[in-house]
Design goal:
Blueprint: E1 4-11, E2 14-21, H1 37-42, H2 45-52, E3 71-74, E4 77-80, E5 93-95, H3 108-116, H4 125-138, H5 144-150, H6 162-176, H7 198-203, E6 218-224, E7 230-236, H8 238-241, E8 246-250, E9 275-276, E10 282-288, H9 291-298, E11 302-307, H10 314-321, H11 326-333, E12 346-354, H12 357-363, E13 366-374, E14 377-378, E15 386-392, E16 395-400, H13 405-416, E17 423-427, H14 443-453, E18 457-460, H15 463-469, E19 472-473, E20 476-484, E21 490-502, H16 508-517, E22 527-536, H17 550-567, H18 572-579, H19 599-618, E23 626-638, E24 647-654, E25 660-664, H20 673-684, E26 692-696, H21 713-740, E27 747-750, E28 753-756, E29 762-764, H22 765-774, E30 780-786, H23 796-800, E31 812-824, E32 831-841, H24 848-867, E33 873-874, E34 877-878, E35 896-902, H25 921-936, H26 947-957
Helix pairs in contact: 3-6, 13-14, 16-17, 17-25, 20-21, 24-25
Length: about 950
């Protein structure tokens, strides 16, 4: 029996005791050869708070002291609790987010975070708030620099930190003047309404998947591959099965249905049987009574491998495939992967031509060329993958933060050998996603564990497991030729793109499609040739990431346009304006644009702000450093498109107690879509703050919708909500008129009641529901919205089946122009982004505060892509195993971001609105690299633009 000692401490004002192991030799913990995350956490304050006291507001983001999500106060000081050993805390005073305010109230800091929009996904919010509390306790009126220093240990991947800085400043004021505290809990179109789920986020009471605990629950641990590519000769689970507390050890033979999953092609095994194709392949799965027992048993499984040669260079593969004709490549890459050997390296190959690109190049007065490379990048959301699964009668139920519950249901049903109606997916609040959680990681393992054991199961990946298993932004190699006339008009674009698809299909075919569709940027190009390759390798999985293939091509094209503007002695704004898409223009794919084409307006807005603000930034440059300014534009689809049926349904119902329930298949990952849906409904029917209830992301309770991707939810789902609420309001008025005995056109809705406009008579929603209940009636409306038909780029038959004006690849587009102001130290190559101007077309702004937060967060991600982030893989082995190694921007790298919201209504959107959550990542990276060139004359061709690369460029240029 394990020896323990008792530690006395105070948590949130209450005395508690902790029984902790006496072992101090961590390397020998549980008899293991090395320290593991599970065994480390067993000794930690974080584990004690989360598991023993069930104070789950303290989050486990990394387990290695790198992200700050587990921040608490210990004796008044901000401390990361994940590696803080309880043995050292005798008589310590600990305060967590749950102890910051009395139940039912908000501390001024919590209120300020809500009011400022300082929360998005909310996973880092408790840690950030506790760090803010520690800062303001010692410094009640900090400067912006002091705020950055005080919060530097807490990472936020969503907000970009600007709203967090604002929240800290507001907190300082509200602590001193609590009578000023305000909130906006409800409102319609254009109102800066607080996050619909904000209270749970700032109080730490919102349950994420890793916080869930079910009765009689087992814990799962997977055995991952030891090799990037190998045959499996044998698997011996004997010793693992003998560990007390182990319920079952599963291998591929236990998968009841199709042993595969994936959003397009189910080619990744749930558990590998004959071979492994990357380090994130699962070989076996252990279900045990505790997480540490599952881990111990997992480590006792013996697998005999025969290592195989791996494919690690997509460019080398393309050299070998270049003999294929366009037709042969299309035939291979468009086939069902289940019918092909998935070890074949070609995932997708396509060629699209318009006009005569060689003639266009020949006619050009200037041709600019370049070979560009972009790296794999980790999404770096703060919440590692987690979930629970269980049988609910005969329905196998999965609770996970997936972006695609309906597609996930189809995959999981197929893998478990069940019909779709015996699988239910419930989307939990998510600590960030950015595209990665469209693809499965823990989901099939959870389903298998629950299916086989018939007990509830839980699985949470460590950060290292997450980094190895999850999908990444595709690395690209790009070769571009751009021809222009002397006036800066683009005549031709010739682009070849090679992407690393990783070992399985995932969404790689769609990503390379996107890259080709957007390879000419938001510009009119008469002659073009676009060739895209997606190549299977034994590196990491790659799939969707904000921008979905557009970021890579934008970096190449916008860099060359910057070069062209300089060589033609043109203002970079003017060059882009002369080529800008407008109403009536054709995209590179041939789609004729008709409405809400706002690139010119974003160029004008960005230019005006830059000209006004630049002198102020020039004064900030330190002696010896160089100031640089760069611009770039971009656009991105809004809606799934490419032949995908894009649909959504909404249901609005009057409930007992006068509540109004809205059901809609949206998934909120911090982008504020639940808030937006509520605002759309309240624009039509001004429902009070405590009256509206939302049910979202549940395959049993909400109508089918494609997923949280492609900036589609506001456009498609929002339109369904708008129409459903209009129908509900009409029926509500009709029912009330029947009850009150007056014409419906004499009633109006106000203060959650139906009011007679010519008298003082009114009927509250509570009273109306009671009256209707007596009649056995209710008020309920449904609306199903299907976006216009679209076509894939390679669908020639579809292109020819409709008139040119009806051909479209996407429902609509969002446009953006950004300018970056940087300071470069020519002595060490260090780059500091001082400011970003972000002018964005949003159609119509539903919630300006949420939009600003999305744009700021996107700019931060684009900044990281430009300057620091990389996920190097050597011979199939990831070189980064901790969160810190990802070099995600912290609050110390936060630039000033000046935002211009451009409104040009989209007729197909709710009240003219459309999505913007991805496009803001597109232009910021080339804007920064263009600014670096403006500062020191170094053109960056491979990301990220590290100091070493800048110094090398300076040496080459003789600076």
């Amino acid at each position: 029996m394990e020896e323990t000692i008792t530690i006395n401490l105070t948590v949130n004002g209450k005395p508690v005791t902790a029984s902790v192991p006496t072992k101090t030799n961590l390397l020998d913990f549980l008899g293991e050869k090395k320290m593991t995350p599970t065994s480390a956490n067993k000794l930690s304050l974080m584990k004690f708070l989360r598991e023993d006291l069930r104070l789950t507001g303290t989050k486990n983001g990394c387990g290695t002291d790198h992200c700050g999500s587990c921040m608490v106060l210990v004796n008044g000081q901000a401390k990361m609790s994940c590696l803080l050993r309880v043995q050292t805390l005798e008589n310590a005073d600990v305060v967590t987010i749950e102890g910051l305010a009395e139940p039912g109230t908000l501390h001024p800091i919590q209120a300020a975070y809500m009011a400022s929009g300082g929360t998005q996904c909310g996973f880092c919010t408790p840690g950030m708030i506790m760090a803010t509390k520690a800062l303001l306790d010692t410094n009640p009126d900090p400067t912006e620099e002091e705020i950055q220093e005080g919060l530097k240990d807490v990472i936020c991947r969503c907000t970009g930190y600007n709203k967090i800085i604002d929240a800290t400043k507001l907190s300082a004021r509200w602590i001193q003047n609590p009578e000023e505290m305000t909130s906006m809990s409800s409102g319609g179109l254009g109102c800066p309404v607080d996050d619909f789920d904000g209270i749970g986020k700032v109080q730490g009471t919102l349950d994420y998947a890793g916080d869930l605990v079910l009765e009689d629950m087992l814990y799962l641990k997977a055995l991952w591959s030891e090799h990037p590519h190998a045959l499996i000769k044998s698997i011996d689970t004997t010793e693992a099965e003998q560990v007390p507390g182990v319920v079952q050890v599963m291998t591929a033979a236990d998968v009841p249905g199709h042993n595969g999953f994936g959003p397009l092609t189910q080619d990744q095994p749930v558990l590998c049987d004959d071979r492994v194709r990357f380090l994130g392949d699962a070989v076996a799965l252990v279900a045990a009574e505790s997480e540490d027992l599952a881990e111990k048993a997992r480590n006792l499984i013996k697998v005999e491998y025969e290592p195989l040669p791996g494919v690690f260079s997509p460019a080398e593969v393309v050299k070998g495939l270049s003999h294929l004709s366009e037709e042969e490549g299309a035939q291979i890459s468009s086939g069902n992967k289940a019918d092909h050997d998935i070890d074949k390296s070609l995932c997708k190959h396509l060629i699209h031509t318009v006009g005569d690109v060689e003639q266009g190049i020949a006619d050009a007065d200037l041709v600019v060329t370049g070979h560009f490379e972009t790296p794999a990048v980790e999404h770096a959301y703060l919440e590692p993958e987690a979930g629970v699964a269980y049988w609910d009668d005969k329905v196998l139920t999965l609770k996970v933060p997936t972006q695609s519950p309906y597609e996930m249901r189809t995959q999981m049903a197929k893998a478990m050998g069940l019909p779709d109606d015996q699988v239910r997916i419930i989307v939990t609040p998510s600590g960030g996603a950015f595209g990665s959680k469209f693809d499965a990681t823990v989901e099939p393992l959870l389903m298998l564990g629950a299916y086989c054991t018939r007990r509830p199961v839980k699985m949470t990946l460590t950060r290292e497991e997450s980094l190895i298993c999850s999908v990444k932004r595709h690395p690209y190699e790009l070769d571009y030729r751009v021809g222009l006339d002397k006036d800066g008009k683009i005549l031709a674009v010739d682009a070849k793109m090679i992407s690393d698809a990783g070992p399985y299909t995932d969404l790689s075919p769609r990503v390379i499609d996107q890259a080709c569709l957007f390879a000419c940027g938001p510009y009119e190009v008469p002659h073009l040739r676009l060739e895209g390759w997606a190549i299977h390798t034994n590196n990491v999985r790659c799939s969707a990431f904000r921008g979905m293939g557009i970021n890579q091509v934008a970096f190449a094209l916008e860099s060359l346009l910057d070069e062209a503007a300089r060589k033609l002695d043109l203002n970079p704004f003017d060059l882009r304006y002369r080529n800008a898409l407008k109403e009536g223009s054709k995209t590179a794919s041939g789609q004729i644009l008709r409405d809400s084409v706002a690139l010119e307006e974003t160029l004008e807005a960005a230019r005006a702000i830059l000209e006004k603000e630049l002198p102020r930034f020039q004064k900030k440059v330190r002696p010896g450093n160089k100031l640089g300014v760069g611009i770039a534009s971009g656009f991105k689809n809004v809606g799934a498109g490419k032949g995908k049926v894009d649909e959504a349904g909404a249901t609005v119902t009057l409930l007992p107690g006068g509540k109004v329930e809205l059901r809609i298949g949206v998934m909120d990952f911090g982008q504020g879509i639940r808030t937006a849906m509520a605002q759309i409904a309240r624009t039509i029917l001004p429902i009070g703050p405590n009256t509206l209830e939302l049910i979202t992301g549940d395959t049993l309770l909400t109508s089918k919708s494609w997923g949280a991707c492609a900036q589609r939810q506001t456009l498609i789902c929002g339109y369904a909500v708008m129409k459903a609420t209009e129908l509900f309001k009409d029926e509500l008025l009709a029912k009330a008129a029947s009850v009150m005995g007056v014409p419906a056109d004499e009633l109006t809705y106000m203060d959650d009641a139906l009011c007679h406009i010519t008298s003082d008579r009114k009927l509250s929603l509570v009273q109306l529901e009671q009256q209707l209940s007596q009649r056995e009636e209710t008020v309920m409306s449904n609306y199903r919205h299907v976006a216009p038909k679209t076509f894939a780029l390679a669908d020639v038959e579809g292109r020819n089946s409709v008139p040119p004006e009806e051909y479209r690849n996407y429902p609509t587009f969002a446009y953006a122009t950004q300018a970056s102001i940087v300071e470069v130290n020519p002595q060490d190559g260090h780059v500091k982004v001082l400011g970003i101007v972000a002018a964005h077309d949003v159609g119509v702004a539903i919630n300006p505060k949420v939009i600003e937060g999305q744009l700021e967060g996107s700019c931060s991600q684009g900044l990281g892509y430009a300057l620091s982030e990389d996920f190097p893989v050597k011979d199939g082995i990831p070189q980064m195993r901790t969160y810190r190694g990802l070099k995600v921007p912290s609050i110390l790298e936060t630039p000033e971001i000046l935002i211009a919201i451009v409104e040009k209504p989209e007729p197909a959107g709710p009240f003219g609105a459309k999505g913007i959550s991805e496009v803001a990542t597109v232009p910021v990276t080339p804007a920064i690299t263009n600014a670096i060139y403006d500062a020191v004359g170094v053109r960056i061709y491979d990301l990220p633009a590290t100091p070493a690369k800048i110094l090398a460029g300076l040496g080459t240029n003789g600076h």
